[in-house]
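can u pls check wat happens w/ NAP
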Amino acid sequence: MRVGIVGGHGKTGRAVAAALAVRGVESVALGRSDQPDLAALAGCDAAYLVAPNFHPDEPAYVASALAACERHGVGRVVYHSVASPYLPAMPHHLGKARSEDLVRRSGLGWTIVQPAVYLQNFDLTRPLLVPYDVHAPFGFLDLADLGEAAATVLTEDRHEGATYELASRTGSVADLAAGAGTSAERVEVGPDVPEGLRTMFAYYDAYGLPAGTLVLRALLGRP
Ligand SMILES: NC(=O)c1ccc[n+]([C@@H]2O[C@H](COP(=O)([O-])OP(=O)(O)OC[C@H]3O[C@@H](n4cnc5c(N)ncnc54)[C@H](OP(=O)(O)O)[C@@H]3O)[C@@H](O)[C@H]2O)c1
């Protein structure tokens, strides 16, 4: 089996490729230089679609990748969405909600994964300084768990038509810090922080981004 990972050179794609390699599955990472034809998808049995962070038009990026899958005979696609995609207050989440709709109507065999906030976004060897409430509720996802779940979904038939919210653990940034023996503190957003991130931090401050852990446990067959 061969899997094309579109947007595959970032930390997400690398985690998926590593987990596939453990299963003896070959993968090919596609980046900007492969756009828009994505010719390296030819000969792939499945594609894993990752949009770059804060892409200004994720539905267009996903539509183009779905068309490339069709063109190159890739019948199976797994789309890397996000936990709680339908959040009208956050345009980059809404872009994923619209992209999910494109995936579901693509005519390809599809699965959607909705990952929680990556644990690897936090350096637990230092005090955690975040521009939102450190007690806000979150689901957190370990990238190794994401890779394993993605590899499971890509290599088994029974996940077609499924949408899976993925989190390794729940809690707050304060809980993460306490577990790692460090501290957590809310800081002001810096003046150079882009608008999309500001909007995201404001949402996190008010509501966090909760996600559940049971689906990931079921997929991995372990806690
Ligand atoms: N961070 C989190 O906590 C979190 C949680 C849930 C979901 N996500 C989602 O995970 C994804 C980001 O994953 P990541 O951080 O691993 O990816 P990333 O580093 O943002 O992107 C990596 C890939 O995107 C390609 N790329 C960058 N700009 C592009 C453009 N304009 N057009 C086409 N391709 C482009 C890069 O190509 P090159 O190889 O050419 O550089 C690279 O292969 C996002 O969709 C994000 O919403 C993140």
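The chain has one domain: 2-220.
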